[in-house]
Design brief:
378 residues; 17 strands; globular; disordered N terminus
Length: 378
């Protein structure tokens, strides 16, 4: 038994140091202890943290991002290939991305968990349908929007086989593509091509178990992860579960990048926590109509995105922002963006199914570990 009453476990002959740490933060029957959690906002437990300077991006500036020289970026000793960027967004601009994640990205041609749960044949707009059907009960567990756990764009991830297929592909949002290309350049990856995104929608009881993201054919390109809304605890481990994970506190606007030695490590989200309301006021404000009216020619309203088109203007006017605010108050949104193919690649079928080399520390032998589930649970 460990300190928290959990049975010790072994994987491939090694002690599993990840699972006990995951359970420690996930458990609701004991008081949550954040004493060991790295919090970049509060500057807690920063002994193993090193502040770093990222390079100026040579791609066109993305509206809503602060200049790179103003970003607060960090590396963690013992976890090479992991970079944490503390909220690089201009005050208020996170609203744009939250709107996109809730109002636009779950709609066709994206694929969502709702396709497997309900008849979506007559649903062209997930939010407006949920708003009409549920009204003030929008955050009830039975409302359509609360059943939304994930949406995939670009290459649509197939959960059952845990793979991507050439025939399962939709257009990738150009605004998100440009955002990721810009940020990837700052860590020295100059040719990043965002080809798939999984947007996870966590509610306050949600979590995501220890897993690796290995289904992409290109494991050299970085994985970019954006957090919006409520807080989360994020655990970062090693190539095997014999590495004890470090736990980080993620706040709205934070960006995590995993590349190089860190691209294929175990990681998890054991807990969602209420965000500090004063901090959220600087991130976004839903007490007024959306400032993004879809006018491409307006410098005021165009956040460098051809996706925000005239067709969205009418839909934004139908949104009841009070209900939208209620939803965000109980939700953490995670945009997880990856490159699937190697540079110059055009077809997934041209490559073998990817596997992840995991080294057994005692024997030195390698084995293939396939991707674990990434579906958020509530």
């Amino acid at each position: 038994m460990d300190l928290y009453g959990q049975d010790s476990e072994t994987v491939d002959g090694e002690q599993d140091l990840f699972k006990p740490e995951y359970k420690k933060y996930k458990r609701k029957d004991i008081k949550l202890d954040l004493g060991d959690v790295i919090d970049f906002t509060k500057q807690n437990n920063m002994d193993s943290v090193q502040e770093i300077v990222l390079q100026e991006s040579q791609h066109p500036a993305v509206r809503g991002l602060k200049p790179v020289k103003e970003w607060k970026s960090y590396a963690i000793k013992g976890f090479p290939g992991f970079i944490f960027i503390r909220n690089p967004f201009v005050d208020g601009h996170q609203r744009y991305w939250i709107e996109r994640c809730v109002l636009d990205y779950p709609n066709k041609p994206s694929k969502t968990i709702l396709d497997n749960l309900v008849d979506m044949s007559n649903v062209s707009d997930v939010w407006l349908t949920s708003q009409k059907e549920s009204g003030s009960n929008i955050t009830n567990k039975d409302s359509l929007i609360m059943k939304l756990r994930w949406a995939t764009m670009g290459y649509n991830y197939e959960w059952n086989s845990r793979a991507y297929y050439d025939e399962m592909k939709s257009q990738f949002p150009s605004d998100l593509y440009e955002l990721c290309r810009y940020i990837a350049f700052t860590i020295g990856y100059h040719n990043f091509s965002a080809e798939t995104a999984i947007v996870n929608y966590y509610h306050m009881s949600g979590d995501m178990g220890p897993h690796k993201d290995i289904s992409e054919i290109d494991h050299d390109a970085p994985l970019l992860s954006f957090s919006f809304g409520q807080d989360a605890l994020f655990q970062l481990g090693g190539l095997t579960k014999a590495t004890k994970p470090v736990c980080l506190s993620l706040h709205s606007g934070d960006v995590c990048i995993m590349y190089g030695d860190c691209r294929l490590v175990y990681h998890a989200v054991p807990r969602i926590l209420p965000a500090d309301q004063d901090n959220l006021k600087h991130c976004y404000n839903f007490n007024e109509d959306s400032p993004y009216h879809g006018n491409k020619t307006s410098e005021e309203n165009d956040p460098k995105s051809p996706d925000v088109s005239e067709g969205l203007a009418a839909r934004r006017q139908e949104v009841e922002w009070g209900l939208f605010s209620q939803y965000v108050q109980c939700t953490r949104i995670n945009m997880n963006v990856r490159q699937v193919l190697p540079p110059g690649g055009t077809n997934i079928a041209d490559y073998p199914q990817p596997v992840c080399p995991s080294v057994n520390c005692k024997t030195g032998k390698t084995s293939s570990v396939h991707n674990e589930t990434e579906q958020t649970k509530s």
